[in-house]
Amino acid sequence: MRTTILFTALAVLPAYAQSPGKALFSKNCTSCHGANGRGGERAGDITARNLRTREDLADLIRKGLPERGMPPSNLSAAEIASLVEHLRTLEPSSSQPSLTTGIKANGPSLDQIVNARRGDWPTYHGNIGGNRHSPLGLIHTGNVARLAPAWIFSVPGAPRLQVTPIVFDGVMYITAPNEAHALDPGNGRTLWSFRRPRTKGLAGDAASGINRGAAILGHRLFIVTDHAHLLALDRTNGQLLWDVEMADYRQNYGATSAPLIAGGLVISGHSGGDEGARGFLAAYRPETGERVWHFWTVPAPGEPGAETWKGDAWEHGCAATWLTGTYDASLDLLFWPTGNPWPA
Q1: Residue 22 confidence (pLDDT) above 50
Q2: Range(s) of the domain holding residue 53
Q3: Is residue 157 included in any domain, yes or no?
Q4: Is residue 135 part of a domain?
């Protein structure tokens, strides 16, 4: 079975200065056809409808297309006429606005990650400290009910999406298992895509096709693969720069979380906590992928805390580092959650 997952961007529909036809369109049409009529989650692009005559459009609205899921309308003749006039003003997708003219070579510095600029979301949590707060005010409690699809980017073959996009300098980066895409957030246009085949013979979350995002520093974008590799891509074109193995996937290791930039290093955890993989966290140099340090979350005999693990349980104690941690730059402290210890 081939699956397509839709990544949807939302637009706020203004509550003011709307023509009667636009107000009717916002109320009756955007939930299916999108804020600009170029397609939504439940129906397709209707901007080409303006090639029909007014009479044909009115008849279509009145009768609907029940066989395609579009019900007949109970609008009055005057309301249908207003709606038709608005439909004829919709512009085709080729005129969608762009927020970028290309990807600039200079990516975010450490300071721009720690002190994110308004409009940027340069790390999995937005803020490297993990508060996931945006200072932008366009969407708020007064207009959130009027959100409607602005564009949709499909990810063919992805079994599910759990990604939090990152955004820097007008470019959005999203991931799926073993793939990454750079998008223009203004219109969903693909700037580049990177893909490699899914790994066979995996266990647990990695086998189910989970990937939660990427990290970015300078001209590099960092992602993990389902079989516990860490990759660096050129963020301007998606070319592979280096590939390092964090752990042997044949020992039930996988990777699903977004890496984290902290102290000038790329930090990554792993999945496999339900399959007996001993937990660890590791740091790598962003330029080369060289491993700088490696920390076991389950201590071996003779290490502090080992006495709390019975017998040889430490060998498969799990305590996986499957969710992205946070970093306090002022204290130079890294915080990372663990889960799935065994035996419980």
Answers
A1: yes
A2: 20-95
A3: no
A4: no
Domain co-membership, 43 together with 118 = no
Q: Let me know if residue 103 belongs to a domain.
A: no
* In the block, residue with structure tokens 């008849």: 59
Query: Coil, helix or strand for 92?
Result: coil
Tens-place pLDDT, residues 186-244:
889 999 999 999 999 998 888 899 999 999 999 999 999 999 999 999 999 999 999 99
Same domain, 312 and 244: yes
| 86 phi and psi angles, rounded to 5 deg | -70, -40
Overall domain count for the chain: 2
21 to 32, 75, 157: CA distances (angstroms): 17, 11, 39
Residue 241 pairs in a beta bridge with: none
Residue 254 lies in a domain: yes
Do 185 and 89 share a domain, yes or no?
no
* Per-position b or e across 101-139, b if 16+ CB within 10 A of its CB: eebeeebbeeebbbebeeebbbbbbbbbbbeeeeeeeee
Cα atoms in the 13 Å half-sphere on the side-chain side of 58: 11
pTM of the entire structure? 0.79
